[in-house]
Structures are given as structure tokens and as C-alpha cells.
Amino acid sequence: MNLQKQQRRAEKALAKALKAQRKNPEQVIPLPVAHPQPVKLEPKPRIEIVKRPKNSSPVSFVLGNGRSRLNIDCERLMSIGTVYGCNAQYREFAPHYLIAVDVKMVNEIIAAGYHKQQEVWTNPNKGITNKDRINFFSPHKGWSSGPTALWFSASQGASEIYILGFDYQGLNGKFNNVYADTFNYKKSTDSATYHGNWLSQTEKVIKEFRHIKFFRVIEPGAFIPDKLGPNLANLSHISVEDFGKRFPDTIYSDQIVQKSTI
Fold first, then answer.
1. 37, 56, 92, 183: most buried by Cβ count inside 10 Å?
2. pLDDT > 90: what percent of the chain?
3. Contact present, 122 and 135 (Cβ < 8 Å)
4. Is 202 helix (H, G, I), strand (E, B) or coil?
5. What share of the chain is helix, strand, coil (3-state, %, to 5)?
6. Which pairs from 248-253 meet CB under 8 Å and 24+ separation?
7. What is the DSSP string of 79-143?
8. DSSP secondary-structure letter at 163?
9. In this predicted model, what pLDDT tens digit does every residue of 108-150 receive, in sequence order?
10. What is the pLDDT of residues 70-82, one digit of tens each?
11. What distance in Å separates the CA atoms of residue 98 and residue 118, rounded to the nearest whole number?
């Protein structure tokens, strides 16, 4: 089965799981994700996730949810360095830290029971349904999830940080996200989301932590904003192929061909 068919199957499975969750909110159902790996939906009485030990490596990986990261097997990065995931990324696997600042996304994570066994970080908000076992940034940045995760990783003492899925621009002017067309996300046919705030926040982190080497992993010909240009001496842009050479066995052999970002 090719990746596109697997993606469509996963999206249908996710919609089915969420429908079942709404009908029976007392039952926690693992949520699959639109991802290029086969996903099986097996409802269980409660979520079962293996607790991940923290990694002592000086290397960290911050997972944004732009589609450029679909060709990377991000779960393999768990044994290489510390992984910081954002929002619905928990549907794929449990990173070392999950960061979500959108209230609807935080409440989805709580409804799935993920926070009971894994580390979740967010900003204080009255709309959060259950604050038990949720970690709150204090003081908080008031930023979007991706840049907040990047700042959090930099503040934890990493010497090298690899930034994945920070695409900023849309795909042919449309919404660019791994989880497009799934619960709590826009449709893939919707207009691209404004990225100016994400970009400015990313720039602030890289400028604040000048002693850290940042590597943004991108597809060939991808958008490189002026704010993330040569003026930032501690930031480099590397290709997915070069990333795979640095970290062997992390790139899927059957790769998705990305459309140009505009």
C-alpha cells in the first residue's frame, strides 16, 4: 500500500475514533494519525502508553507539524536525543515532552488520557477542562506551540537543536499541516495560516540562545525567510537527505513528494 492510501486510511480511522469518543466520553480511545505508516484502531478501556525516560544527549529535536517532516521517522529520534512534540503529534507516539497551547488541543489531549502518563506543557487558561497532571509554563511566553517548544528545548541545556516541520508557508497557498482534515484542524483546502508570529517567535529564540547550534530541516527549494537568513550565525538550513546522513535509518525509504511552498 502506498503512502497516500495509508494516509487516507488513517484519517478515516481517526474520524471513527473521535466519533466513538464523543458517544462514550468515559471510555478513553487511542487516537490514530494521518501518517505514512499503517495505523490500526484498537479501542481499549484506557490509554496505554510506555513512559519514556528522559534522554541525556545534548541533541534535541523539535517537531513542528508542517508536512516537510513526513519523510522522517520521528519516533526513531527518541533514542538519539530529547524529542519535543507539538499538539496532535501525540497521536503518533509519545515524545519526551508534548507542548500544546491551543485550548481545544489541550482538551483533546486530556480527553485521550495522554496526560496521565506523559509530560504535557501548556499556558494557563480557564478553558482547560482538567488541570490535574498538566504542567504550566510560569511565566508563559504567550506564543504559538512550535516556537514555545523551541524555546523550551533551548532552555533545557541542549547544545544542538534540530527543527523539523517548521515550514511557515502553505502548500500552493493552502493549509500545510500533517493533521489537516482531522479533528481540531483546518481542511487541507483552506487557505494557509498566517505565519508571521511563528516566524518572529522563532527568530527571538535563536537570537536569545546564541550559544546553541540550530538546524532547520527542510525540503529542497523550501521557503527560507529573511528573518532566518545568514544574519543568524547559529542557524543552518539542512536538507532532509543531509539529516538522514547525520542520523542513519531515520528517513522513510518510500518518500512522499512534497509540493512547493508558496
1. 92
2. 69
3. yes
4. helix
5. 30, 15, 55
6. 249/73, 249/76, 250/72, 250/73, 250/76, 250/77, 250/80, 251/71, 251/72, 251/73, 252/3, 252/36, 252/71, 252/72, 252/73
7. GTSEEEEEGGGGGT---SEEE--SHHHHHHHHHTTGGGTS-EEE---TT-S--TT-EE-SS----
8. E
9. 999 999 999 999 999 999 999 999 999 999 989 999 999 999 9
10. 999 999 999 999 9
11. 8
Domain map of the chain by residue range? 57-246
Q: Which three cell numbers stand for residue 16?
A: 471513527
Q: How many CB atoms lie within 10 A of CB 98?
A: 28
Task: Look up residue 208 and give its amino acid.
Answer: E
Q: Hey, what amino acid is at 45?
A: P
Question: What is the amino acid identity at position 19?
Answer: K
Which cell numbers in the block locate residue 52? 519514556
Q: Is the dihedral of CA 165, 171, 176, 181 positive or negative?
A: negative
Is residue 207 a contact partner of residue 131, using CB atoms and an 8 Å limit?
A: no
Cell numbers given for 159: 547544545
